[in-house]
Task: structure prediction
Amino acid sequence: MSVNLQTPIDYLKGVGPNRADLLRSELGIHTYQDLINLFPNRYIDRTRFYKVNELQRNTAEVQIIGTITGFREIAQKRGKRLVADFKDDTGMMELVWFRGQKWIRESLKVGKTYVIFGKTNWFSGKYSMPHPEIELQSEHGNNLRSAMQPIYPSTEKLSNKGITNKVASKIMQQLFLETKGRFVETLPKTLKDDLKLISKSDALLNIHFPKTSELLTRAQFRLKFEELFYIQLQLILKNLIHKSKIKGFPFEEVGTYFNTFFKDHLPFDLTNAQKRVIKEIRSDLGSNAQMNRLLQGDVGSGKTIVAFMSMLIGLDNGFQCCLMAPTEILSVQHYNGLNELCKLLKINISILTGSTKTSERKIIHENLENGQLQILIGTHALLEDKVKFKNLGIAVIDEQHRFGVAQRSKLWKKNTSPPHILVMTATPIPRTLAMSVYGDLDISIIDELPAGRKPIKTVHRYDNNRLKVFKFIRDEITKGRQVYIVYPLIQESEKMDYKDLMDGYESISREFPMPDYQISIVHGKMKPADKDYEMQRFVKGETNIMVATTVIEVGVNVPNASVMIIESAERFGLSQLHQLRGRVGRGAEQSYCILMTSHKLSNDSKTRLETMVRSSDGFEIAEVDLKLRGPGDIMGTQQSGVLNLRIADIVKDKDILQQARYYAKQVLKIDPSLASPENNVILETYRQMSKYRNIWNYIS
Ligand code: ADP
Ligand code: MG
Result:
């Protein structure tokens, strides 16, 4: 009979109630199972001994053999510190204790040979090691210790309360004693054979007490694979269940609206990517399942026309459609653009936003309910309960990152069964991230810009080159172009940002005086109506320069604006920089993006700036962003469950992720209900995981 791994951690010998509380609060370890899954962050080679004269200022933990030659107490501001002189045949160093001095003084003997282990500091011409792990050399040999010593995740509180790495290792040893190191296998034999994986028990033993570095590598591979495999399995399963449960409206027909538009009214040739994506959407809409598709495409890649043509399929099947955008300005832009096309096809289209007059609103509500209104464009106003469709067939959401899950689910309820949903975003999500977060959620990618676009020239300039930049702006304005100058975001508490913006505005006003130049200013502290007014002046070409904070980030389309100046560019994230740059390069003229910074730049800032200058590919930029920030930061807390991996790293373990996904798909393809005896182990493990863990939630 094996030990139940759901046993509370309190019952493990050597843990007890106090330590159990700490393990729970600091590391989230409640059970034996949790403890066994506390994987080391890294390993230190304890077969290696350093000599004092080999120490360098940046070596991490080292192990040294030597003798204590004497003790001293040194008074300091508060209390005193205990210092021992420690010597080997190559030199001298100091061991230092700030706490527990009495005990140390009593237990350590001058003249004896010890093995010490810890981090060293370089302090007033000498190396010292604060609070070393220390044991007599004679005892050192007796202790069972693997060559690679694991270093466990820890917190300041844990080490202050005496749960050092050594203690953590001891607790782990105890766990292996009690369980005899025998653990239930969690992967089927075929999979293990196929991938030459070691057994679960071997993997756990070697992850905690590696016998050799080769076994450690195999243990890591096995556990990473397993972790990613079960996440993929879960995501794919969820998607399969979703598809089988939620019936959509099959749009069987591609009819007159679509075909007429395609034949007679396409304003340009579609790019191959647009064609491909429309095909993907068409086949989704034609199936029995409700479509839930994410459409990714860089700014300017032409997502709108794809959305429009998808809506035409909806109309062809007798349904209404809506398109929701995050701001009034964007909604108006969409409406103006699509209205032109709708006129050609005699489609009834309207716009509904917060500023729609009550009288118009009434008409819209009526026509929506009686089915005369075919396409409705708008902001969040579309979500209001009063807005009732006769039969909403497809809802398009633009710039999805601005909308939450709750809002999406509101859209779902606008019809007896949920409409097809197409979510569009210009913030590309790296493949690996999309895979691990969305699993099998359907994703379409437009990875090609319309022909003839001139790539935006991006440069990095230091603040002391400002005069040259001003001259450049003047030249562009003389040519008839318009210019954006963007400052970091204003948040209520960030008075400095506001000051920067206002100082900037003042100096720009001085540099570009009226009446020769007109300047708009837009920032987060303005009333929406004032913001809109200023924005409209710029859109209409009445102003030459738009000084703004990041409020212009999303969607604004001013083809005549050809210069984007980003002030304090080092303070922006990569995806934000990329979004901002996407505001220019929308017209026929050569566009420019100038990243202004001071000379003080962190390494990460440098990488971001270099990436922007080098690349205009949103996916490449997203990959760099992922490496810099890590997946949790990029996706936000919503998906942190999926991204909170125990051992795998979706950036570093991309290949394993791909493999895990492939195998998870294979398994489910052959045996979707995991009913075969062979897959019983998968089913069992999966059940256990769902039972004892917060199962990950993701976009739905
Ligand atoms: P986004 O993907 O950023 O929403 P839009 O749909 O607004 O991009 O398209 C950007 C501009 O490119 C629009 O003016 C649009 O009319 C134009 N456009 C879209 N597709 C093509 C194409 N295949 N050929 C030429 N121009 C196109
Ligand atoms: Mg768009």
User: Anything to note?
Assistant: Residues 303-304, 398, 555 surround magnesium ion (ligand 2) (CB under 6 Å). Residues 236 and 409 are 21 Å apart (CA to CA). The first strand starts at residue 42 and ends at 45. The two ends are 42 Å apart (CA to CA).
